Write the structure tokens for this entry.
Amino acid sequence: MSELVLSPFAQKGEDIYREQILPEISEETLKGKIVAIEVESGDYFIDETSLKAITRAQTKHPAKMFYLKRIGYRAVHKSYGVTRKAVA
């Protein structure tokens, strides 16, 4: 599998997650929960859903963007789709 290329914002969020957050948390205990990371300060907020994590994060950082990560997984969300052959 090829390496995923991230935007500078996402790369900074991933770096904070790996270097600062993972050593502080129990990935096994929190697996599946969402972490919202404010990349400028390194502050992070963990909750059950994206909405809850962002809401908590916005309380402290109202006008900021947040990097989201599902603990223990590569992506926050997965999507399923069905492809259908176009009928001519």
Observations:
- Residues 8-70 form one domain.
- Residues 73 and 83 are 25 Å apart (CA to CA).
